[in-house]
Specification:
mainly alpha; 2 helices; CF(0); ATP synthase F(0) complex subunit e, mitochondrial; mitochondrion; mitochondrion inner membrane
Length: about 90
Amino acid sequence: MSATLNVARYSALLSGVFYGIYHRRSLQKAHDQEKEHHAIHQREQLIAQARDAWKHKQESPKESDGIITNPEDPRFDLEKLVAKWEKDL
């Protein structure tokens, strides 16, 4: 084999290896960005679900039992609240 052919082979081999490294890094970077975006979206969705559940929980006692759980409210009755808690257990 001639020296020129060996130089061409090894040049192609090394350029392929370096291209593979470069391509792998670009794919990994895109994958990491997508993974981060998905994690942020998932957290936002969980926070929205928690807010909805909290609102539903806050509205439910007022509508169903008529018991006021806010101690700052002048209509607050501690005995009714304790009786409701005992009933729920």
